[in-house]
């Protein structure tokens, strides 16, 4: 891979990297197209990374179709595909790993212990194997993107991380290799996820808009907090206090509402 990249560089081409775990779909298509537009030599990596799976059955059932993936890459004008096996990526015992603390602690980090260590470590290895100028990651995996951005800054990887918007099915379901594993009934239900996110966006917006369309009012804060600690809410569950402070002329008014989220 280094020789391919070095040879592209002698032709003054910039290098674009799109790391994937295969089972490519139009979400990956958006990453590859963006890389194709912005860089002169596009490398896709296809590797179902065992160290980022917290459950062996999830790793085993992860969809794989290398022939279809290579055909997909070819159709999109990818210059090189790197599809190592696990022995090539991890030839010996793994004694070194990358831990991005803070941003990786909650949510996916909490529900999938070790997941982000696996992701950060394999992405660091890919950045070293394929010294790219720009690397493309989907916003669907928003926390993963934040982890990788922090890692690239903290470890001085000379690569620009490019976020690419989520691609959705016509009914709103975010494209994912895992969608293939849904039964027809589950597939019918799944679009409710995006509907719920949109409903949450609308109600938060609606609350804020009511205040912000009044020219006499300046909002200082409008937040959902834990009613005991007054820290920003960690989970939209149980009691949550919506708190706000506004200025109306030179008068400062505050108010709040305790909301019980079931
Ligand atoms: O998002 C993915 O497909 C994977 O987590 C990645 C970034 C390719 C690392 O294995």
Q: What is the gist of this entry?
A:
This protein has helices spanning about 1-10, 25-40, 55-60, 65-75, 85-90, 110, 115-130, 140-155, 185-190, 190-210; strands at about 15-20, 40-45, 80, 135-140, 160-165, 215-225, 240-250, 250-260.
Could you name the CATH topology of the largest domain?
A: Rossmann fold
CATH superfamily of the largest domain: HUPs
What's the helical proportion of residues?
25-40%
Q: What is the molecular shape?
A: elongated
Strand count: 8
Text of the CATH class of the largest domain: Alpha Beta
- Provide the residue-averaged pLDDT: 95
Low-confidence stretches: none
Question: Strand order of the main beta sheet, please?
Answer: 3-2-1-4-5
Strand content of the residues, in percent? 15-25%
Chemical compounds bound to the protein: pantoate
Q: Ends: how far apart?
A: 52 Å
CATH second-level architecture of the largest domain: 3-Layer(aba) Sandwich
User: What's the number of structural domains?
Assistant: 2
- Distinct helical segment count: 10
Radius of gyration: 22 Å
From N to C, what is the helix and strand string? HEHEHHEHHHEHEHHEEE
Q: How does the major sheet shape up?
A: 5 strands, parallel
- Which class best fits the helix and strand makeup? alpha/beta
